Amino acid sequence: xxxxxxxxxxxxxxxxxxxxxxxxxxxxxxxxxxxxxxxxxxxxxxxxxxxxxxxxxxxxxxxxxxxxxxxxxxxxxxxxxxxxxxxxxxxxxxxxxxxxxxxxxxxxxxxxxxxxxxxxxxxxxxxxxxxxxxxxxxxxxxxxxxxxxxxxxxxxxxxxxxxxxxxxxxxxxxxxxxxxxxxxxxxxxxxxxxxxxxxxxxxxxxxxxxxxxxxxxxxxxxxxxxxxxxxxxxxxxxxxxxxxxxxxxxxxxxxxxxxxxxxxxxxxxxxxxxxxxxxxxxxxxxxxxxxxxxxxxxxxxxxxxxxxxxxxxxxxxxxxxxxxxxxxxxxxxxxxxxxxxxxxxxxxxxxxx
Length: 353
Fold this sequence. Notes:
Layout (H helix, E strand, L loop, with lengths): L7 H8 L6 H12 L12 E6 L4 H13 L16 H11 L3 E6 L6 E6 L5 E10 L1 H7 L15 E5 L8 H9 L17 E8 L4 E13 L4 H9 L13 H4 L15 E3 L13 E8 L3 E10 L7 E3 L5 H37 L1
Parallel strand pairs: 1-2, 5-6
Antiparallel strand pairs: 2-3, 3-4, 4-10, 6-7, 7-9, 7-10, 8-9, 10-11
């Protein structure tokens, strides 16, 4: 009869804890992925999809919106005709998706709905004008959209929404929680590379949607030197007699670009080898698209359903009573006008006689 082994091997076996099932481990990893490890807050995630058939231009706009919401969105989300809204809600729960951006193309103008999953509310916008990211890049002399800027969420900047009351207060809260919150004391400047600007025009009553990339340029350094330090490549000096001609000769960009003092900042920490805390840097924004002009047309309490909160609902009974009162007043006014006209006509006849 064999005796059980004793020794260091046996003690190591007893020291190990119970084995965690693979399903439980995956759930724990998914829960950690949905929580910010620094702030401890839940990371907002989004789905950008469409309802109904879209033309090719709106399909490209949908893909551009997915890039705006990166990295916490499904860039290659595939939809099928038989999928309904309930299917997206069922999938969103386990994946931690909290926001929906839904594109549709009714007979009038394209619509874009912003909604919270799974209970709402839903803000429906009518897209009056839009331009794709490719159109904006083609209109620029030097487009700048490196793929590395999509590794972090954009910074949301809101303008013109103060003092509007509901439903715009709820809309502002939605936009603020659409991307992860930023802690100024712990955020790394190298991660802030995009801005999503949402500006409300009170005169036209529309929301301007703009998407920019952030670029830092050191002040006092010529463009040629910046390129030399960024690319780490030896420039073509065959037509020059001396290396100094590359910087000082006219036509080689020896002069530094004019920097606006209002856009010049002192960095609290080093961003890269060019933009360091000991130097001043100029902040430059370049639009990368897409661009939209939207008008708020409807607010619903639920997820694409429920009570209509905007435009303000009016009771039918009060409308009917008001109409009856108006009709009575109009009849009295008409009678008074007839009597006044009769008096005026009579007085004129008497004067003529």
